[in-house]
Design brief:
The structure is a single chain. The chain is mainly alpha-helical. It is globular. 69% of the residues lie in helices and 0% in strands. The protein is built from twelve helices and no strands. The protein has one domain.
Length: 338
């Protein structure tokens, strides 16, 4: 009875959080806007969903965030006996934290916009945080050169440059969520979360249909390219630098997790399948980016908050699954690995 009362009290307190109320309202508004904006058809070119009925796509996107609750529950169970790091203490005072947060987002917006211009100029398609074909299937063939340029563009500007700047400002690896406070528990979380996600990806994808050589060569290449092009950029930009500042500015675990999740969605606004040729299409693109990436964003954010270690989400829920287990067939096709 006491445990039930405690659970109910925790849930009620969570619903009283302003950030949670805003998130739920935003979810309702976005979900309700899909049908009048789409008029029964979506403008996105997502080959893997080509045979999926319209309503299945809609409801799968709207309620996809419920899948994140599984990983959140598992992570909580695995970390319930450890000391949870005080992430807010790793950030500077509120004034400086706000200044650094705003400055980093202005910088990030410039990098994303420049990636669109440079990518279109030289390759006919802008640079996003995913290669064309990742997650939803190819809409055009990416060249090996483009794949490497994409990877190093994102790595240098989203990962290396911010890391070096904040290290030069004398932030330690611990202050940047890049040092484990409990290596044994962090490893356990990585192994369990990776096992769950990899099992789902392998069962649903085409990785196991590849030859042994394609699995090894293509999997290794996919790991390196995606580690540089999306794994490390996301980890450094959001989960190493922004997350402690969100914790300092909000003073709320729930708000920090939600801001981390929304930030993950925000850096994906220029996905290869998004369409911005009209106002309805632009609004649908923004809505689907938010609803699609809020699920992995919640998991990554919660893993980081519970462990205080940004590496946990990278190894457990990004670099290998899905970008090896799901995206290796795409890399095999791009690099013509036989």
């Amino acid at each position: 009875m006491a445990a039930e009362t405690k659970t109910r009290s925790w849930f009620v307190n969570l619903l009283r959080e302003r950030s949670v109320q805003i998130a739920l309202l935003l979810w309702v508004v976005c979900s309700a806007a899909i049908f009048p904006l789409s008029q029964g058809t979506l403008p996105f070119n997502q080959p893997r969903l080509a045979g999926t009925p319209f309503r299945v796509q809609i409801y799968g996107t709207i309620f996809g965030w419920l899948f994140a609750l599984i990983f959140i529950a598992v992570t909580y169970a695995l970390t319930r006996r450890r000391a949870i790091p005080d992430m807010a203490s790793r950030a500077p005072n509120r004034v400086m934290a706000l200044r650094e947060t705003v400055g980093l987002w202005i910088y990030g917006a410039v990098v994303m916009a420049a990636g669109q211009v440079i990518g279109r100029r030289f390759f006919g398609e802008g640079f996003g945080l995913h290669l064309n074909g990742s997650l939803f299937g190819m809409t055009r063939m990416t060249t090996p050169t483009q794949a490497w340029v994409w990877a190093f563009y994102n790595f240098v500007l989203f990962a290396m440059a911010p890391y070096l700047v904040f290290r030069s400002r004398r932030y330690s690896h611990e202050a940047l969520n890049l040092k484990s406070a409990n290596l044994r528990n962090d490893t356990l979380v990585i192994v369990v979360v990776l096992a769950i996600e990899a099992s789902v990806e392998l069962a649903a994808g085409d990785f196991l249909k590849l030859s042994a050589h394609q699995m090894l060569a293509g999997g290794g290449l996919s790991f390196v390219i995606h580690l540089l092009g999306t794994g490390l950029p996301v980890m450094i930009f959001i989960y190493a630098i922004l997350m402690p500042r969100y914790a300092r500015l909000t003073g709320s675990t729930a708000a920090t997790v939600l801001l981390g999740a929304v930030s993950y969605a925000a850096v994906h606004i220029f996905e290869y399948w998004t369409v911005y040729d009209s106002l309805p299409h632009a609004l649908l693109s923004l809505i689907f980016v938010l609803l699609t990436f809020i699920t992995p964003g919640l998991v990554k954010s919660y893993l980081t908050v519970r462990t205080g270690n940004a590496w946990v989400h990278l190894w457990g829920y990004h670099a290998i699954a899905p970008h090896v287990t799901s995206d290796t067939p795409m890399i095999v096709e791009i690099f013509r690995i036989r």
